[in-house]
Design brief:
Elements: E1 7-11, H1 25-34, E2 40-46, E3 54-56, E4 59-64, H2 79-85, H3 89-111, E5 115-119, H4 121-135, E6 139-143, H5 146-150, H6 155-164, E7 171-173, H7 176-183, E8 191-192, E9 214-218, H8 227-238, E10 244-248, H9 254-263, E11 270-274, H10 278-287, E12 290-293, H11 308-315, E13 320-323, H12 328-331, E14 338-341, H13 346-357, H14 360-377, H15 380-409
Parallel strand pairs: 1-2, 1-5, 2-4, 5-6, 6-7, 7-8, 9-10, 9-12, 10-11, 12-13, 13-14
Antiparallel strand pairs: 3-4
Helix pairs in contact: 3-4, 4-6, 8-13
Length: 410
C-alpha cells in the first residue's frame, strides 16, 4: 500500500520556526521530500518562548505551551545540558510531558491522523500513547540516539522504552550506532534510515594562492560537539601552517568557547558566524578546505547519532576530519572520504589537519570520494522510499489489526 492521501502527524522536540531556522531542519527536510508522495503532514512540536502555531511549507505546525515564556526554551539548544546545569528545568521537563500529552491528545482528536510519527520516543512516545490507544492510531518510533544515551543516566527511561517499543508498528534508527543501542532494549525489526541533505550543494570553490586555508565547524555549541578540543589543536597547527577557523552555530557554551578563544589568543584566527541562512551555509561549505567535527562522548554519555553536517560537507566535495564516535563512523571511511581521529585528542586533530592540508591532490580525491558516497548512500532518492516502506507497512499492519478486531466482534 502507498501513503498517498494518508495523514501523518509528526511529533518532534524541534522544528524550524522559519525557513532559515536551523533547529530540526532534518525533520523538516524529510517532510518536504515526502510531501511529493501525496501524503499529508502535520507537525506537533513545543513552543519556544511562547511562539504560536504556524504554517511552514504548507504544513500546519501545532506549538504546545508547557511553561511561562521565560523558561519555555528547554528544547533547541540541548535539553540534557540545561537539565544538568539548572535543576529547575526538571520542573519544565515534567510540565513538558504532562501538558504535551494533553495537547497532543486534543490535536489527535481534532486532526484524526492515520499515523503518528514519533521522533525521540522518550518522552514523546510516552506522551503519544494515550491518544494512540484511545483513537487507535498506530505509532512509528524514530530514534536519534540522544534519548537512548539518556537511559545511561536515568534507569527509568530504559523501563519506559522497553514497555513502549512492543506496542509500536515500526521502529527506525538514524545509524547502526543508534540501532545497536536499540538492540539492548528491543529485539523486533529496526529500519536504519539516515538523514539526507538539508542544503543544496554548491560546487567547491578553489582557494586562491595567497588565501589562508579555511577550516569549517558547523553545529550547536555544546559539550558533545567537542569544539573546545579543536581550539586546543589550533596552536599546534598554527606552529606549522596558517589557517582560519569559521564556526557556524550557537549554543549554551557559546560564551565559554569565546572566552577560551580569547584566553588562547585565537581571536584573529577564529570567526564566530552564529546562525546563517541555508544559502550562506552552502557557501561556507563550498569555500572551506576541510570540514572538522571533533565530537565527543560528553559527561552525560551523549554523542553524535549520525552527523548530518558531515553528510552535507561530503556533498560539497570536502574532506572531513572527525572523531571516531557514535554514528560518525557510519558516514566517514577513514582514508577514503576523510580522516577519523580519537576523541578529545588535540594532537591527533592537529596532525590530521596538517596531513590533509599538505596533500592537495589527496584532499581533492577525498572530496570526490565523499560526493560519490553521499550520492549512493545518503541521497533522497534512496531515503524517501525507505520512509514510504516504513509508513506503508505500519498503516497496512494497522488496517489488518482493525479488520481482525471487526471480524472478532462479529
Amino acid at each position: 500500500m502507498n501513503i498517498r492521501d494518508k495523514h501523518i502527524l509528526v511529533v518532534s522536540s524541534v522544528y524550524p520556526l522559519t525557513a532559515d531556522d536551523h533547529h530540526g531542519t532534518f525533520v523538516r527536510e524529510a517532510i518536504l521530500r515526502l510531501q511529493l508522495t501525496g501524503a499529508k503532514f502535520t507537525v506537533f512540536a513545543p513552543s519556544y518562548e511562547a511562539c504560536k502555531g504556524h504554517i511552514l511549507d504548507g504544513v500546519k505546525v501545532y506549538r504546545f505551551r508547557y511553561c511561562p515564556k521565560r523558561f519555555e526554551n528547554l528544547t533547541g539548544d540541548g535539553a540534557p545540558t540545561k537539565l544538568q546545569r539548572q535543576p529547575l528545568y526538571l520542573l519544565a521537563a515534567a510540565s513538558y510531558i504532562i501538558l504535551g500529552t494533553l495537547q497532543l491528545f486534543w490535536v489527535c482528536h481534532k486532526e484524526k491522523p492515520d499515523l503518528l510519527h514519533i521522533n525521540w520516543p522518550f518522552p514523546h512516545g510516552l506522551m503519544a500513547t494515550p491518544a494512540s490507544f484511545l483513537f487507535c492510531i498506530p505509532m512509528i518510533f524514530s530514534f536519534h540516539g540522544a534519548e537512548l544515551m539518556l537511559s545511561n543516566r536515568f534507569s527509568f527511561v530504559v523501563h519506559i522504552l522497553r514497555w513502549l517499543l512492543p506496542i509500536t508498528t515500526g521502529v527506525t534508527a538514524n545509524s547502526s550506532f543508534t540501532c545497536g543501542l536499540i538492540r539492548k532494549l528491543y529485539d523486533g525489526p529496526v529500519s536504519i534510515i539516515p538523514y539526507g541533505l538539508t542544503v543544496e550543494a554548491k560546487p567547491p570553490q578553489e582557494r586562491l594562492a595567497k588565501e589562508v586555508p579555511r577550516l569549517l565547524f558547523v553545529g550547536r555549541l555544546d559539550e558533545r560537539k567537542g569544539l573546545q578540543y579543536l581550539l586546543e589543536a589550533l596552536p599546534l597547527v598554527l606552529a606549522k601552517q596558517p589557517v582560519r577557523l569559521r564556526v557556524v552555530g550557537k549554543g549554551i557554551l557559546e560564551q565559554e568557547i569565546k572566552s577560551q578563544c580569547n584566553t588562547m589568543n585565537l581571536d584573529d584566527v577564529v570567526e564566530f558566524l552564529g546562525f546563517v541562512s541555508k544559502e550562506e551555509l552552502a557557501i561556507e561549505y563550498a569555500r572551506c578546505d576541510i570540514f572538522v567535527l571533533p565530537a565527543i562522548v560528553d559527561s552525560k554519555g551523549d554523542t553524535e547519532g549520525l552527523g548530518v553536517v558531515i553528510i552535507e560537507a561530503l556533498a560539497h566535495q570536502k574532506p572531513v576530519i572527525a572523531s571516531a564516535v557514535g554514528g560518525i563512523v557510519d558516514v566517514i571511511e577513514s582514508g577514503l572520504t576523510g580522516l577519523l581521529v580519537p576523541q578529545k585528542d588535540p594532537q591527533a586533530l592537529a596532525q590530521a589537519i596538517l596531513t590533509v592540508l599538505a596533500d592537495a591532490n589527496g584532499a581533492a580525491q577525498m572530496g570526490r570520494n565523499g560526493l560519490q558516497d553521499v550520492q549512493t548512500r545518503f541521497s533522497w532518492s534512496r531515503i524517501v522510499p525507505l520512509w514510504q516502506s516504513v509508513f506503508s507497512t505500519a498503516l497496512g499492519a494497522a488496517s489488518l489489526d482493525s479488520l481482525s478486531t471487526t471480524v472478532a466482534e462479529k
